[in-house]
Design goal:
By secondary structure, the chain is of the alpha+beta class. The protein has one domain: CNF1/YfiH-like putative cysteine hydrolases (4-Layer Sandwich), CATH 3.60.140. The protein is built from five helices and twelve strands. The strands form three sheets. A six-stranded mixed β-sheet has the order 3-4-7-6-8-11. β6 and β7 form a beta hairpin. The longest helix is centred in the C-terminal third of the chain and has 12 residues. It is globular and about 45 Å long. The mean pLDDT is about 95. The structure holds zinc ion (ZN). The site of zinc ion has 7 residues, from loops.
Length: about 210
Amino acid sequence: MTDSCLCLGIDFGDCHVTAGVCSDAALFGKDILLPVQTHSCNVAVVDADCNLPDTDAVITRTPGLRIGVRTADCVPLLLYAPDIAAVAAIHAGWKGSLGGIADRTLELLDGLGANLSLLRAAFGPCICGSCYEVSHELTDEFRAAGFSDCLVGERNVDLEAVNIRRLLRAGVRRENIKPKSCCTLETPAFPSWRRNCDSRRLLSWIMLSQ
Ligand SMILES: [Zn+2]
């Protein structure tokens, strides 16, 4: 964490968990488990630092093990299950949002015994629906998957809204979902691939307190 890296905390309102975002993952340091993201819907449950190829979401119940994901317009989603003391970090671009990586992560947390009505969720900065124009073919795919109300006009998709819909469908309570603080494309402090093919990556992380 250096002066040239904007780092902000995300408050889950619980002293047992800390979370945050940093504007440049490369400057954050090595004290974090980051999967090798491939826009898959693969989720790993880990209890220690390890290599995670072809993985786009991580769950852990190990206190002090910081987990995170890297994005530049894609959706970073952080979860905290207070009843089983578990946290998750999810990377959901259009592929993961359409394919349901959030659902897969919630299924695994449910399998670990989490009551999803207690789950807390927070989104890191990502591109907003007004800025995220895609092809007609892709809007058709989201429409066919039941996300018509997450489209903005004819050509735009609100990926955060898609993931919020998935959380609500799984039983997460709306009041336990914290939306993103800003749009990456509209906020120069944060990396945006759409804005300038930014080589930086936003880091979104979460950790159970020790
Ligand atoms: Zn925007």
